[in-house]
Amino acid sequence: MAGGWGAKAQAGGMLLALLGWISSCVTTFVPLWKNLNLDLNEMEVWNMGLWQVCITQEEGVVECQAHGSFLALPPELRISRLLMCLSNGLGLLGCLLAALGLEGWRTCDDKPGRKRRLLLGGGVTLGMAGITTLVPVSWVAYNTVLDFWDETVPDIVPRWEFGEATFLGWFAGAFLAAGGLLLACSTRSTKTATPLAPACHQAPPAPALAGGHHLHPRNADLVI
């Protein structure tokens, strides 16, 4: 029963980890972290990401321009670039380590302890990838909320709002963390209890007869 639960937990954990890693990669490169609707020109929608800014016109034409300088970006975007790239690398590494430790793979079958360590290491790495995804997305979202409700900015100035990549990044971080947790917890069910060696019971001594005579004749009593 424990082995069946462990296999299901590993399958679910790998599925969540793969979905989270793919979503994290998409979140990193799509220019949909922030949206800006201009009241003066409603036919244009501005979208900003970590790497470029895009303008979508009503006719469906999209024009994108990369950020000029990395140092010219706001601090949250600079740190988010680094953390999201780190998250993508950790997610890939975690998936590879966890895949080598799955029960269905024949790698290291003769060394179950190594398979458990690979699975545990993959789960921990995926958890770290989830954290490094949630931190930059939440940081950018927090600054977006502060800028939106900034009373020092006139009301006629357009405000940036949440983009689709913000929500996708939250889901990606949650999937990575949940997948890593399932994979790490499944290592407990893969532990097989080592059977104890049977105790050696010593045969009881032969009972002695009354008068000090033994059941078996002594060597001196044997007649040749």
Give a written overview of the molecule:
The protein is α+β, with helices and mostly antiparallel strands and 224 residues long. The chain is 50% helix and 10% strand. It contains 4 helices and 5 strands. A 5-stranded antiparallel sheet has the order 4-3-2-1-5. The longest helix is centred in the middle third of the chain and has 37 residues, at 112-148. The protein is elongated. The termini are far apart. Mean pLDDT is 82; it is low at 192-201 and 220-224.
List the helices and strands and how they pair.
Layout (H helix, E strand, L loop, with lengths): L1 H28 L4 E4 L6 E5 L3 E6 L4 E5 L8 H26 L11 H37 L12 E2 L1 H22 L39
Helix pairs in contact: 1-2, 1-3, 1-4, 2-3, 3-4
Could you name the key traits of this structure?
five-stranded antiparallel beta sheet, disordered C terminus, 224 residues, elongated, 4 helices
